[in-house]
Design goal:
The complex is a heterodimer of chains A (about 170) and B (about 300).
Chain A: H1 2-23, H2 42-47, H3 54-72, H4 77-95, H5 110-113, H6 115-138, H7 144-169
Helix pairs in contact in A: 1-3, 3-4, 4-6, 6-7
Chain B: H1 2-33, H2 45-80, H3 95-100, H4 105-116, E1 126-136, E2 142-147, E3 160-163, E4 166-174, E5 179-186, E6 191-195, E7 201-205, E8 213-217, E9 230-233, E10 245-253, E11 262-267, E12 276-282, H5 285-297
Antiparallel strand pairs in B: 1-2, 1-12, 2-5, 3-4, 3-12, 4-5, 6-7, 6-9, 7-8, 8-11, 9-10, 10-11
Classes of the chains: A mainly alpha (about 170), B alpha+beta (about 300).
Chain lengths: ~170, ~300
Amino acid sequence: MSGLVLINGMRFLVLLLVQVLIFKRLNPGIESFNYLQVLLYPLFIMLLPLRTPSSLVLLLSFVLGLSVDVFYDSPGVHAGASVFTGFLRGIVLHQMEPRGGYSINFSPTKARMGARRFALYSGLLLTGHLIFYFSLEAFSFAQFGALALSVLVSAVVTWAFIQAVMLVFNPET
Amino acid sequence: MRNLLEFLTRFGTFFIFILLEALSFFLIVRFDDDKNRSFLSSASAIAGYTLKQYDAIVDFFNAPREMALLQQENKQLREQLSSAYYSFSAPVDTVVEWVRRPDSVYSKAIRQDSLALRDTSLRQVYTFIPANIISSTVTLRHNTLTIDKGSLQGVAPRMGVIGPTGVVGVVRSVSEHYAAVLSVLHADVAISASIKGKGYFGSLVWRGSNPRLMYLDAVPNHSEIVKGDTVVTSGFSGVFPAGILVGVVEYAKRNPSTNFQDIQVRLAADLSKVGHVYVVQHQWREELNQLDKQVKSR
């Protein structure tokens, strides 16, 4: 139990730092193509153990999002998107429940879910997160084309990053 | 009571979800009103410290490029020193004229003459606080920078920030050691700018997508503006001195439907490459702000 808390605490810190120090600076440098944002930190929300109380998932998501916001100078934007992802996580996990149900100690990782199911799971949550994020950032749906393009480009690239991270570390919990 | 408890356990998660989303929205909306807060911004002590430590590592790799940029700026400034000029005429004292017409070529020449005279009727109005950018973005719709100087060094909200190649942004919030700056590439920032040598002025805004292109709004249709005109700050608001380079007109077309021209400006500064900046301090800032408030409260 305390091991789980420690692992997730470390994950929180590392993903936060990687996000605000490295991915925040990432700039593809292609003029007039300003649509890519790599948001790796939702991986923390995805990987929380299944038995985490859903209200705690929401609360942790909020804290993580707000911490990212502090560095991005956008209070509320990442927090709102993260809380949405935390909420979406419960629904997606419920929909993807295997016939026999989950075991008590289940964690939604690639090692436990299998590569294909995890790819789908992370893809769904990530797309939800990015749609919510880009809508909040623009604070209007006026430029729908730009919004859709941002979500698409960012989702594909970030998704690839997430799969790569899971391939390298492949955590059980 | 029991019913309420039952309701909460059943809908608790959804309730918390709505609550946290409401809180997020509140933060988004409220932050735009309250510009003097450093809490929850990258200028806060922990965030500022973290960014600075990391920037110290990255800076090592950027140093040669930074130095070339600063050297170029030094060259331009040296060429403006009075000792770099030969005076043909007896200097004239035309400070009033200079204040009134900051952008014309004619007045600039006289300004240099009067500087050569060490005219006692000139007062220093702008001073500059050197600072390092420790973090910045150019790819968002609301781009910001964090600098490593704060209220202890005299930085205050609404001060302008300029780089070696032109305008960079406006300070939003400060802590003791750090300041969060709104980049000119931020949807909420508008800068008063004018066309060098022509006197027309307008409001410079960014509309997302391209970090090198801005729009100059509110320039009337009758003004003569062509591609290649230089755009500089107007100096009206006291945020920036007059005549700081902004960029070059890339596209200008009259728009009969609005009576204002559509003008695109290519920024002189590549904001993703700027590392060292100056915070612009206006000596009579308080006075200006107070006048501003009086006018707005009417």
